[in-house]
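Explain this record to help learners:
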Amino acid sequence: MIDEVQTSEIVDKQGGEKVITIKKAAVSEIDEILSLINRYTEQGILLKQTRRSLYNNLSLTYVAVAEDEIIGTASLYQLDRNLAEVRSLAVDVNKGQSGIGRALVERLIKETKHLHIKRIMATTGETGFFAKCGFHLTDIENVPQKMNQDCSDCSELHVCTKQVMIMSVT
């Protein structure tokens, strides 16, 4: 059985109702997901992903699909037994401001709860968006798992403008 959430509250620009399906990503969708993420990587908004990294985390990657087209994606990455991270949240620029990003984040929060992980975080420049999703600002020192696994090796460590947002899910 495919684990899907149908959302009918997303309205297109002509005012008609459009059903967006949030579902787990499939191997056959990797190139399309990577293309969407790379649009944001080129702008310096998201960190670069590789096919290998997507394959390795495919079981916790979700896509938003409308009319057989991937219009959004997000991954959940488990940093340790009590902390997961929202990664590679990307929505087609032509579909923004329509609730797709929020629906993807809500699906990742649901998955975090399902896995019995206590907290979910995001490293982001979009603090307003994540605040609307229920996250709050915290210092990177409060999530040493992130610093130890990712930040310490990042080429942008000393010039990073991202902020850490976190939420308890239990």
Notes: The chain has one domain: 4-168. The longest helix spans residues 100-114. The mean pLDDT is 82. The longest strand covers residues 69-80.
